[in-house]
């Protein structure tokens, strides 16, 4: 997968949809799949998104409400 070094996760779109749209989508998806600290058990891991705004810790199984693409709101 050496062809997506610069574009990263947005490389799957190729030349479609425009550069600015792909860059914005890439930022959102990188935040979504980043590692976060569980507010309940303190584990640093990737949280599982059950649905839009519903997040679950894979270690302790705690479920809570957060933002659509991050486990909590940005200004939190």
Automatic annotation (TrEMBL):
Pfam short name (any one): Ribosomal_L37ae
Entry superkingdom: Archaea
Gene3D superfamilies in alphabetical order: 2.20.25.30
Gene Ontology cellular-component annotations: ribonucleoprotein complex; ribosome
GO biological process: translation
Record InterPro entries: Ribosomal_eL37/eL43 (IPR011331), Ribosomal_eL43 (IPR002674), Ribosomal_protein_eL43 (IPR050522), Ribosomal_zn-bd (IPR011332)
Gene Ontology molecular function, alphabetical: large ribosomal subunit rRNA binding; structural constituent of ribosome; zinc ion binding
Residue positions binding Zn(2+): 38, 41, 57, 60
Keyword Lipoprotein appears in the UniProt entry: no
Keywords: Ribonucleoprotein, Ribosomal protein, RNA-binding, rRNA-binding
HAMAP family named in the record: Ribosomal_eL43
Function statement: Binds to the 23S rRNA.
Subunit structure: Part of the 50S ribosomal subunit.
UniProt record similarity statement: Belongs to the eukaryotic ribosomal protein eL43 family. Putative zinc-binding subfamily.
Protein name, as recorded: Large ribosomal subunit protein eL43
Protein encoded by which gene: rpl37ae
């Amino acid at each position: 997968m050496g062809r997506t070094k610069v574009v990263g996760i947005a490389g799957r779109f190729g030349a479609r949809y425009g550069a600015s749209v792909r860059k914005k989508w890439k930022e959102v998806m990188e935040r979504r799949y980043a590692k976060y600290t569980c507010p309940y058990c303190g584990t640093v891991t990737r949280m599982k998104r059950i649905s839009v705004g519903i997040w679950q810790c894979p270690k302790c199984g705690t479920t809570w409400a957060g933002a659509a693409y991050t486990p909590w709101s940005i200004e939190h």
